[in-house]
Each structure stands twice: as structure tokens, then as C-alpha cells.
UniProtKB/TrEMBL annotation:
It holds the Pfam family Trehalose_PPase. It catalyses: alpha,alpha-trehalose 6-phosphate + H2O = alpha,alpha-trehalose + phosphate. Belongs to the trehalose phosphatase family. PANTHER family: TREHALOSE 6-PHOSPHATE PHOSPHATASE, TREHALOSE-PHOSPHATE PHOSPHATASE B. SUPFAM superfamilies: HAD-like. It is an enzyme of class 3 (hydrolase). This is Trehalose 6-phosphate phosphatase. Its cofactor is a divalent metal cation. The keyword Cytoplasm does not apply.
């Protein structure tokens, strides 16, 4: 029986419309949609609105001084200088790292075990961008991917369905990656597009399009402008518009000003109860309060590929940040596939394995492609 995949495919804004047009594709991969239907917009949004019903009522309380202090302390503790100064060859730190590696072994060292579990099944690759495919850099606009990494991601995409799932906007991450063969899930999965093929007229054909937070765009744009004005007095502060969410970067801000910057963010968000704050690596992110994250994006892409209830698929998600934990948790709860955390230091995680940095991610993807080619050759 042919898989039927439901995807939102109308690029026109849905704000204000009473119904949403949805396509049903007969192809689990890249074919154009064949059938369309509509259903009530209210019902659609009910499926996506925030899981935490108390968020709107308690937003002000959640943004108290204690919460801000906790965020700032967490960012300080994760800074490279703090990590180096606090872990200089002490026995306790070495024991902690050894214990952590036992719990979350290197995906390179466990490669054969991972591949044995994937034998005869379809691997689907999910990759974070910053800190996973590119190194973490001071200026987020210069988080360039290397030519070697680009080529290995392209090779992976030619052998497995491959998606980049990032907090960045799709436009920005695509400008970095420059590949048409992959799925892009930007804004933490709130903006999903599939592999593209340009026709002879230079027009682009989108394989998949899903934007559950589209009605929040005007609000995000307004908050971006307010934050840019409020934070311009803090040297190094940067507000990044990721279309369906935004990021306030702390990386180039003097550590003594972190609390002040966090307070500025808090002061703006109090007036927008439909938005919420989350924390990343030296970044505070503002997102719509809808029930959507990288884990939901992973599930959506698996459904779109026709693997929703398949036992013959192995999703592999590689990421380095707190936001990737949503995807790791989904895989752990499914009991299917593997999460791989990119980190040089011990962290609590829902992942199963670890890699230290983008260079090891590169090596893992190379070995994965080689394994695939060898497997095909043996058939």
C-alpha cells in the first residue's frame, strides 16, 4: 500500500484565513503533492498551541530575578574559560569524565554496534548546525561550514534522507550550507522545507513546506526591533531574527553585562505572553508558545518520509545544544534510533552516544557513507 503523507503545502499566509489547505502526497520522498483538502484553521492551531496552559498566566513569575540569575550562572559555567579553569587535571574531574564516557560512549568507537542495529533498515539523518556542522564562533554571522564538511553532508544526503534542524532561519543556514539535496528545518523546526530542484526558468520546486507558527511573524519582527533598540547600549549584544523565533547572543558581551542584557530581554518579553524564553549556549531565544520543537520536527519529517509507524527506520540525530535534547528525548521514548551529543565536557543528556566536536561529526558521516556504499556493493 502506498504511504499517504499529509503536509502543509500552501505558501500563502494563513493569518486570518478560516481554513488551511493541506496536501496528501502519494510519494514518501520527493514527488509533488497529488491531492488537496482543507480543514478548519481553529482545529489545526489547537493541535499546535502551547502544551503548558499555565504559561500565559505565569509568564511574569517565570521571568523573575531568580530565573535570570540561573540563566546567567549556567552560561558562565559553560564558558570555555570557566571550564578550563575548573577542570585542570583534578582526579575528581577525570573520574567524572570517565564515568560520563562510559554512559555516553563515542559514536566512533561504537560505530560497528550502531551499524549492526541499522543493518537492513533505512537510516534517516538529522543534524544540528552550530556546534555540530560548524564550530561555535564569536560572530554568529560567520559560522561558516568547511568545504570538506559540505561535501560529506552532500554525500550523506545522496545515501540517506538528511535534514538540518536548527534554530537559525532557513535562509541563513541555507546560505551557509549551499545544498539543495537536504531538508531544512529552521527556527527550531517551525519552518520546514524539503530538497529543491530548480527548473529551466530558475524557479525552485519545494518538496515539503510546514510553518506552524506563521501567524507569529509580525509579533517576532516587532520584538526584534524593540530588543535592538533596548540592547544597543550593551557592547557586543546581538539580536538575530530567525523569522519564527529570535536569538539574543551573549557571546561577544562582557560577562559583567550578562545579567543586564538578560534583564533587558525579560523586560520586553513580559509584554508578550504568547512568546516564551529558552536558553542555549550563550544565547537566550524567544519562541512562540506553541507545542513545537526539534523533537516535533523530527516526528513530522519521519511522517513526511513515510516512516511514521515503520520498524525498519533508524533515525540518527546529532546535536550539541539544549534545544537538541527535545529530539534526543523523542528517540529515547520511541526506543528507536540514536541521539548523539556533540560535547567535550560531561553533560546530562537524553542522547545515547557522544562526539567531541565537528571534526568528529565529519568523521562519523564519512564512515557512515562508506558503510552504505560497502553494504550496497555486497548486495
Amino acid at each position: 500500500m502506498t504511504n499517504q503523507n499529509v503536509i502543509v503545502s500552501d505558501r500563502n499566509p494563513i493569518l486570518g484565513s478560516k481554513t488551511i489547505r493541506v496536501s496528501v502526497s502519494n510519494s514518501p520522498l520527493f514527488s509533488s503533492p497529488s491531492t488537496y483538502f482543507t480543514f478548519p484553521r481553529r482545529k489545526f492551531l489547537e493541535l499546535l498551541e502551547a502544551a503548558d496552559k499555565n504559561n500565559n498566566n505565569n509568564n511574569k513569575n517565570n521571568l523573575g530575578a531568580g530565573k535570570i540569575a540561573s540563566w546567567v550562572d549556567s552560561m558562565r559555567d559553560s564558558s570555555p574559560t570557566r571550564l578550563r579553569s575548573s577542570s585542570r587535571d583534578s582526579d575528581s574531574d577525570n573520574d567524572e569524565k570517565t564515568s560520563w564516557i562510559v554512559r555516553f560512549p563515542s559514536a566512533l568507537n561504537m560505530f560497528d554496534k550502531i551499524m549492526n542495529a541499522a543493518k537492513g533498515k533505512q537510516i534517516v539523518m538529522f543534524l544540528d548546525y552550530d556546534g555540530t556542522l560548524s564550530p561555535i564562533v564569536e560572530d554568529p554571522d560567520k559560522a561558516y561550514i568547511t568545504h570538506e564538511m559540505r561535501e560529506v553532508v552532500k554525500d550523506a544526503a545522496l545515501n540517506f534522507p538528511t535534514a538540518i534542524v536548527t534554530g537559525r532561519s532557513i535562509d541563513k543556514v541555507r546560505a551557509f550550507v549551499k545544498l539543495n539535496e537536504i531538508y531544512y528545518a529552521g527556527s527550531h523546526g517551525m519552518d520546514i522545507e524539503g530538497p529543491t530542484n530548480e527548473n529551466s526558468y530558475g524557479e525552485s520546486n519545494q518538496g515539503v513546506l510546514f510553518q506552524p507558527a506563521r501567524e507569529f511573524v509580525p509579533m517576532i519582527e516587532k520584538v526584534v526591533k524593540i530588543l535592538e533598540e533596548k540592547t544597543k547600549c550593551i557592547p557586543g549584544a546581538m539580536v538575530e531574527n530567525n523569522k519564527f523565533c529570535l536569538s539574543v547572543h551573549f557571546r561577544r558581551v562582557d560577562e559583567k553585562r550578562w545579567a543586564a542584557l538578560a534583564e533587558q530581554v525579560k523586560s520586553v518579553l513580559v509584554d508578550y505572553p504568547k512568546l516564551k524564553l529558552t536558553q542555549g549556549r550563550k544565547v537566550l531565544e524567544i519562541r512562540p508558545t506553541i507545542k513545537w520543537d526539534k523533537g516535533q520536527a523530527l516526528n513530522f519529517l519521519l511522517r513526511s518520509l513515510g516512516f511514521e509507524n515503520s520498524e525498519n527506520v533508524v533515525p540518527v540525530y546529532i546535536g550539541d545544544d539544549r534545544t537538541d535534547e527535545d529530539a534526543f528525548k523523542v528517540l529515547r521514548e520511541k526506543g528507536q534510533g540514536f541521539g548523539i551529543l556533540v560535547s567535550k565536557v560531561p553533560k546530562e543528556t537524553n542522547a545515547s552516544y557522544s562526539l567531541q566536536d565537528p571534526s568528529q561529526v565529519n568523521e562519523f558521516l564519512k564512515r557512515l557513507v562508506e558503510w552504505k556504499r560497502k553494504t550496497v556493493g555486497e548486495e
